[in-house]
Specification:
4 domains, Rossmann fold, 49% helix, globular, Helicase, Ruva Protein, domain 3, 5-stranded parallel β-sheet
Amino acid sequence: MPENEQQEMSVNDNTAMTAASLLLVDDDPLILEGLGFMLRKQYNVITAETRQQALEKINQAGELPSLALIDLGLPPYPHKPDEGFTLIRELLSLQPNMKVLVLSGQDNDVNIQHALTIGAVDFIAKPAEPDLLLARLQHHQRLHEIDQLRDSQKTVSIVGDSVAMQMVGTQISQFADSPFPVLIEGASGTGKELVARALHENSKRSAEPYLAINCAAIAPDLLEAQLFGHAKGAFTGATQEHKGFFIEVGKGTLLLDEIGELPIALQGKLLRVIESGEFYRIGETRELKSQARIIASTNKVLSDEVRSENFRNDLYHRLSILNIQLPPLSARGDDVFLLLNVFMESYADTVSPFVLDDGARELWQQYDYPGNVRELRNIVIRLGTKYPGQSVDKIQLSAELETQLSATSLAESATSVSDEMIAREIRADEFDLDRLLGEIESRSIRIALELNGNNVSKAAKALRINRTTLYSRVQKLGTG
């Protein structure tokens, strides 16, 4: 550690005890040293030069930072934003309330919109004015404090009047007191952790602990020790015993988030805990018993993972006895306006209210929200910050969306069909599933090509399909 850094830390030892923690990630040592020196006057700063180093350091720190300020271009691909995007997702999977700000020179519109869509709350272009940077950090630290206060006080409320969300609410009531595991499936940002908390709070276990562990955010060789615990000296670095989550949660609820990332080697051990409650801590031969209620969540389709032999069939069937499928926000109709009002009210202390004019309201309802509820929340915060007390028009709103739709493409985008509309067409014998799926497929391909400069290879990667498959679908649909 540089001498001046040691001096700065010693001077601020007292304030560091109460200061908010901040993760600063940049591959430029000069930026780390300069920014680190400035920020340590107000924050307890953790610095890292790579994505992997950042995750290792916050694991070692024992507590998750409330703020993160990260560059997009990180080793081993400093000229691409991929590592930064991955780090944003990993940090938010560890702590959904963490406020991740991007400080990067890779500030083209596509990178800015994508970073905000996957959960970053701000994007600041390099070089940044120190006063601006500090002001943005202070603003988001205040929002983080409001989130923490709300989480400590609230009884979980699932917002939504759509048919799909009414079904979710019914399932929560039905499943809350069951001793069996619940599998929650849905895309990132749809509220899986919120549903897990609602299951716990509506159960007879609500007075017991609720713990969540993200199976994707912890190195596989450490995950077993976190779940099952270990004895002192069980392996290198095990300087003291660790009870493990199954013991710490007692008779409460344990959420295994991103269960699809659980290593195969641990899946058999988890299956045994679910079936009999029995497990062993690493380094011990004494059998222990778990009384926890297991909830698992994933943004993968676990049945596909089973067919690909990435997930055990027997574990899948034990986890999915009770299943809750969360719909994407694009399938929830007018819920987007309910959520708009909820988030404006939630952040009223720091973000001024605004109104959408008729054009903006139309776009608000038609937009796909690829980042789901998390993206909608971030858009509300940005609009309230940029246009306090003002009327927001379609152009201003469009600038905040990842997929910026033109007036012409707005008419083409009306495939965000509500459950009510589908039900109405089925009753009238007018529903055509092939037509609807074809429209969605055609639109997805067109948008992917537009965002990637008509580069088919990049578009195929974005759509997560083979390039030859995309070629054939483009020819079939007449797209491009």
